[in-house]
User: What shape does this take?
Amino acid sequence: MRGLLDAARAHRSAGHSLVLAAVIGTEGSTYVKRGAFALFGESGLIAGALSGGCLEPEIERRTGAVLESGRAVRVLLDTTEPGDRVFGSGLGCRGKLDVLLLPAPPPSGGALGTLLRASDERCGLSLTLSLAPGTLGAGVASGEGRTEAFGPDGRPIFAGGTGELPLPAMRLDVPPPVTLLLLGAGPETPALLSIAKSLGWTTIVVDHRARWSEPARRAGADEVHAVHPAEAHAALSARRFDAILFASHSIELDREHLTAWKDSAAEYMALLGPAARARDLLDEAGLADSALARHLHAPAGASLGTYGAEAVALALAAGFERFLGERRRP
Assistant: This one.
């Protein structure tokens, strides 16, 4: 989603016409599931993926009608027939994909505009889209105490009203961007930040040591706070984090961060380094019997059996991504 929205910002600023593809249902074997998005323009696919590349040409063909009419179009892509072979590609996925192609007119941008505004505010939203004839693609987006509504052409409607849609309608819940707080940095940090960005995570790095904070800044961290642990907690503790990684490579700094963040509501908290080091740190900090100790992932990351800064970064990202996958599983 992050890559898609970054691309949308760039193309909108250049005045390009856009179409947001929203997957509202799937059946059988499909590359993506309900709630996936892709972005198309006059030249074809811009960002996102709805298949391994076999379905996009057909969707690109259909987006032409949306760009020409300015109204939403519903597309059902059926690859379940053995003789179909996915529009001649020979892939044979044997699945169905139900897609709404939504116009994104300036300045509001319809569904795409609501996603961009939610991303800017780092909040999630619930997006309800009409499937009824005559109002196909009209939508209501709500989240963080705010409601926006738009018609089949993507332009604002329901001004001062309730924003109710005729049935049938489909609801898609879009979570807020995943946010990772790195308390401390080291040799693996630039590679981890690169992976995190490719996965769409927001990354915040805390380290007062210039030899680590500056590489993190150059590697594209969304925020770098070159402050000591106590200052970092005072500045950031009111914010929401999905994950906190204690990774300063320093016993003293890790102990200070663990003590400061022991009551954090982050769902995933992990400590870089061996299990024995983690036990010693928690003992020294008086946290051996704390709630933090009971759910702290230590050692952090997935066990890959390989070494080096890049391998450590991959292991750390894999451990968090596995946790996210388990959290999303029904």
Q: What stands out?
A: The domain at 179-328 is CATH 3.40.50.720 (Rossmann fold). Confidence is low (pLDDT under 50) at residues 84-90. DSSP finds eleven helices and 15 strands in the chain.
